[in-house]
Amino acid sequence: MLRNYFNIAWRNLWKHRLFSLINIIGLGLAMAMCLLIIIQIQASFEKDSFHPYPDRTYRILTDVTNKEGKTFPLASTPLPLGPKLLQEQSGVEQMAQVIYGFGGSFSNRIESLSAWGLYVSPGYFQLFGFPLEKGKPAIEPYTVVLSHETAERFFGDADPIGRVLEHKDLGAFTVTGVFAPLKAKQSHLDADLVVSMATYPLLNPTVNQQDWLSYNAYTYVLLQKGIPSTRLDGMLEQVLADNKKNVDFRGIKELRFRRQLVSRISPDFQGLMNNPGVEPWFKVLVNIIMMLVIISLAIFNYTNLTLTRSLSRVREIGVRKVAGAARWQLVLQLLMESVLLAFCALIVGFVLLQVMKSFIYARWLTWEVQHPVGLWLAFIGFTLFTGLVAGITPARILSYGKPVTMLRGALDTMGVRKMGFRKALIVIQFVVSLVFMVVTVVMYSQFRYMATDNDNFNRKNILNIPLTDHNTYRLLSNEISKLSGVNSVGAASALLSEGAERVMITQNDRIKAGMEQLQAYKYAVDAAFIRNMRLNFVAGNNLPGNNADTLKGHFVVINEKAVQSLGLKDARSSIGQTIVLDSSEMIIAGVVKNFNFMRYEMPVTPLVLQYDPHAFKTLSLSVQDGTKQQLLVASLQGIWKRLYPYEPFIYSWYEQQMYDHYMENEDLKLFGVIIFIVFVIAALGMLGVVTHNTEKRAKEVGIRKVMGAGVGQIMRLLSWSFIKLILIAAVIGLPLGGFLGSLFLHIFTYRATPGITIYAACLGCLSLVGVLTIGIQTYRTAMSNPAITLRQE
């Protein structure tokens, strides 16, 4: 019986090839995105399931309850906890600790590349399933193990063992090993490299290694075989009881340690804080909702088109009913058609998924999973679900009619006879498409604003050169300033938008009154750097430029927010006032307008600009307009090689650097694919309905042409009802998309202001889709020969 249903379903799909093709393409496009989302969901549940001892390896969590009774669950623990468990508890076989925060720009003596990683204890290499491809673990101070991909980035095909990576602030690190590629395996401990834990106290000498109130370490333990997990609970309670005798847990009402199996770390269903690399449960939920929204659009298409062409199948179903077919048999036949079509769409979707994989390189996207058999079962199950859901409504409606009515070619079901349901589906499709488009364009405008914004500080015609030695920066600066095309040479501790130093500021009067100092950010700069950045002064002057270093170091430039935070009356009256920067007294030389010097989403914070040549790490060159960049770079490289013959010459154009930093367009690519998919689905749905409607009215069009109606009149007659649907979708979709886009923009303190052109462009795209889907088909019908259409039965 099922084979017979399959054959009939295949013949019906082949008979109505245009509608079948529209449905397969629409479902296939939606299926491609849904398959990608299914991969992300499965990967989040598979994360950290490959380690060698999954049933005995636990991560220790911390629950901190403050005086007000609010509990904060943390994925991290105090640093001394791990060694105490390993040394004092007999049931612990091995312990590993991880600390985040290591990384930056490393040089292999040829080029500098960014890499980020972890401090890890020796147990890391035994506890987790990260095998070494070559070399040995990083145990000694200033030793690192690279990931396979990082080793290729820095050293290509050369053997990296024994090579050195240099960081201008942290020092030189010797490569002792390389991890084997993880391939489809996923871990929350993803890192470009790992450095020995013995390095941590050397790079962080001010950190108290026995501080039980600082939760900056991640502790993992491996229990001995046969030790129940409840035994670990007792160990943690014993450690806490011992600490209460010796540690003053000030400000803490209650502290508790608890265990978590490493295989259950992801997704995070506990809402843990300090939990990097782990997807929260709501992200999985958002993925599921996104998948359902996209596939629903394609299901709407199938339902709409099936109901639209249902009248052509009414007599067929009526005959089946008269011949004795039960209603469940008719439903099964129609469901077989929708399921067969869904599996055809699965093939199309899988091909499109491979195409997406070839040009979208977002690092956070996962394209492979550890258990492909389970993935394909999920694909097939989802396809079967899609086919059944898509076919259930048409099957129910078409199998409901009375045989007598159906044999006359009519169907008295309200859902088919009236167009309201199908029109609502079309409107919903275009509303969703418009919302996606408007939100994505608003996001793009914000990213472009951050990438090209020159209102905060100047980034045009600025060339930056990292310094190797602050003691010789004056010699390099003097040589560069002699070059043709260089306006001025400034120096700074870091580029604006990068790592500013945290400092404490206050007024002398506040210190005497016992008031706390205020936190601020500081850049070490000279007067030329401030000029190059074109910062706007609202009061006072720039830093002194020609006096001795000792005199210049006593002056600072602050921003308006610092004036407000210090409690000063206004910018003008603050000039000449004395403030305390950490423990040193400084005189305010000038006040600049508030501008974004860190991330755009951060609130406006106090800023201090101070002359401190010992902290200079970057030269900032202001270059004249029209200067040939290649000739200038060649001249700079000659000066550099003469002064630093053994150091590589590194430079960057600030404008391009900022653009590359913010216009990381892989996420926008993905959003663009989503917009394309939902618009194509909506357009295909509209095309199918318009095609059926014009075919049904072909004789009417022929009669009107014979009576003298023109092509334009006929096109207006055929298309107006569909144009109204697009206008309704625009009225709903544009404001809704604008509202959701504004919610995104409010994440940022400094943000773009979307103009009317954004909405006009989105409306124009919608109109173009309408013209292509409605106009072409109605034009073909309007241009048809009435002699042919009127002769057809």
UniProtKB/TrEMBL annotation:
<feature type="transmembrane region" description="Helical">
    <location>
        <begin position="373"/>
        <end position="398"/>
    </location>
</feature>
<keyword id="KW-0472">Membrane</keyword>
<dbReference type="InterPro" id="IPR025857">
    <property type="entry name" value="MacB_PCD"/>
</dbReference>
<dbReference type="GO" id="GO:0022857">
    <property type="term" value="F:transmembrane transporter activity"/>
</dbReference>
<dbReference type="Pfam" id="PF02687">
    <property type="entry name" value="FtsX"/>
</dbReference>
<keyword id="KW-0812">Transmembrane</keyword>
<dbReference type="InterPro" id="IPR050250">
    <property type="entry name" value="Macrolide_Exporter_MacB"/>
</dbReference>
<feature type="domain" description="MacB-like periplasmic core">
    <location>
        <begin position="20"/>
        <end position="227"/>
    </location>
</feature>
<keyword id="KW-1003">Cell membrane</keyword>
<dbReference type="Pfam" id="PF12704">
    <property type="entry name" value="MacB_PCD"/>
</dbReference>
<dbReference type="InterPro" id="IPR003838">
    <property type="entry name" value="ABC3_permease_C"/>
</dbReference>
<feature type="transmembrane region" description="Helical">
    <location>
        <begin position="424"/>
        <end position="444"/>
    </location>
</feature>
<dbReference type="GO" id="GO:0005886">
    <property type="term" value="C:plasma membrane"/>
</dbReference>
<feature type="domain" description="ABC3 transporter permease C-terminal">
    <location>
        <begin position="288"/>
        <end position="398"/>
    </location>
</feature>
<keyword id="KW-1133">Transmembrane helix</keyword>
<feature type="transmembrane region" description="Helical">
    <location>
        <begin position="725"/>
        <end position="750"/>
    </location>
</feature>
<protein>
    <submittedName>
        <fullName>Putative ABC transport system permease protein</fullName>
    </submittedName>
</protein>
<feature type="domain" description="ABC3 transporter permease C-terminal">
    <location>
        <begin position="673"/>
        <end position="776"/>
    </location>
</feature>
<feature type="transmembrane region" description="Helical">
    <location>
        <begin position="756"/>
        <end position="776"/>
    </location>
</feature>
<feature type="transmembrane region" description="Helical">
    <location>
        <begin position="281"/>
        <end position="303"/>
    </location>
</feature>
<feature type="transmembrane region" description="Helical">
    <location>
        <begin position="670"/>
        <end position="690"/>
    </location>
</feature>
<feature type="transmembrane region" description="Helical">
    <location>
        <begin position="21"/>
        <end position="41"/>
    </location>
</feature>
<feature type="transmembrane region" description="Helical">
    <location>
        <begin position="330"/>
        <end position="353"/>
    </location>
</feature>
